[in-house]
């Protein structure tokens, strides 16, 4: 234990780590190597996949509380990793979305499948607010505004120098459901069209008549990284789930590829977006 404390104090004094997240990753790597364990062997000891360990050490993924406790027990480090985990996971997002929001900032590619709602990164303020009002009508206005603002702050990612390449497939139902009324819906569709015309995103629409040929149930996002394996985030009402099993991720990718092949071309999709927006503007 004395060696652990000396190492911990030396690293902190030297200012080698600029955040709890990077400190956690470096500490985990040091502890693992001191124990003579590979990422694969360590993952077996704490009942997770090797990808988890690789993502924690490289700071691609936020640490997990349950795994941090298992690691502390294994290495005999008290609650050291658990405390770092709590600091690293401070977030303005719902707990089920914290990891996904963090991962999108380090992804190189984001592939969205949206069967009901416009993906959060593409939403306007008015549309985002309308979603919260529709799904949680009892929520106070100040709480709604807090959630909406957090969503808009995520969109700074679109203007980042190394923004991920975003490809979104929207079911036609997304276009035809006027959350917030025709004016809000028209503005939302124009916003997506503007992003596509500026070549900041690629968007396709899956029309009603083609939906039976390419099908995925629920919102899903495939995330690719410069380092580490791809992951999938799927979301339902008030819940979300990250998937890193390579075989399952590959199946999601195959389903997404089929949907892209079935959907309208990007140009035809852009024309539909603008046509539906015009319809709302005339109503």
Helix content: 40-55%
Low-confidence stretches: 1-16
Which CATH class of the largest domain applies here? Alpha Beta
Q: Give me the CATH fold name of the largest domain.
A: Endonuclease, Chain A
Distance from N terminus to C terminus (CA atoms, Å) equals 71 Å
Provide the structure class: alpha/beta
Mean pLDDT level: 87
Radius of gyration: 21 Å
Number of strands: 6
Main sheet: strand order: 3-2-1-4-5-6
Work out the count of structural domains. Answer: 2
Could you spell the SSE succession in H and E letters? HHHHHHHEHHEHHEEEEHH
Largest sheet: 6 strands, mixed
CATH architecture of the largest domain: 2-Layer Sandwich
Please work out how many helical segments DSSP would assign.
13
| Strand fraction | 5-15%
Shape: elongated
Topology:
Layout: H1 2-14, H2 20-34, H3 39-45, H4 50-57, H5 65-75, H6 80-88, H7 95-104, E1 107-114, H8 125-135, H9 141-154, E2 165-171, H10 172-176, H11 182-197, E3 201-206, E4 219-225, E5 231-236, E6 239-243, H12 246-262, H13 266-282
Parallel strand pairs: 1-2, 2-3
Antiparallel strand pairs: 1-4, 4-5, 5-6
């Amino acid at each position: 234990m004395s060696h652990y404390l000396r190492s911990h104090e030396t690293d902190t004094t030297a200012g080698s780590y600029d955040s709890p997240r990077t400190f956690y990753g470096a500490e985990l790597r040091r502890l693992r190597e001191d124990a003579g364990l590979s990422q694969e062997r360590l993952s077996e000891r704490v009942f997770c996949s090797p990808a988890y360990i690789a993502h924690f050490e490289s700071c691609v993924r936020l640490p997990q509380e349950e795994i941090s406790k298992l690691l502390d027990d294994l290495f005999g480090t008290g609650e050291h990793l658990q405390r770092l985990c709590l600091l690293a996971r401070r977030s303005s997002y719902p707990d089920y979305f914290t990891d996904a929001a963090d991962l999108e900032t380090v992804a190189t590619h984001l592939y969205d499948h949206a069967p009901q709602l416009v993906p959060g990164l593409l939403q306007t303020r008015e549309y985002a607010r309308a979603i919260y009002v529709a799904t949680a009508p009892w929520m106070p206005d100040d709480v709604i505004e807090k959630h909406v603002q957090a969503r808009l702050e995520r969109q700074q990612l679109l203007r980042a120098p190394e923004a991920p390449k975003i490809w979104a497939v929207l079911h036609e139902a997304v276009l035809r459901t006027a959350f917030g009324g025709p004016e809000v819906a028209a503005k939302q569709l124009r916003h997506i069209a503007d992003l596509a015309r500026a070549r900041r995103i690629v968007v396709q629409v899956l029309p009603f008549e083609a939906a039976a040929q390419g099908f995925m149930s629920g919102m899903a996002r495939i995330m690719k990284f410069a380092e580490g394996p791809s992951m999938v985030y799927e979301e339902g009402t008030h819940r979300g789930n990250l998937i890193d099993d390579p075989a399952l991720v590959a199946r999601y990718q195959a389903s997404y590829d089929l949907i892209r092949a079935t959907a309208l071309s990007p140009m035809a999709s852009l024309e539909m977006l603008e046509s539906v927006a015009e319809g709302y503007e005339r109503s």
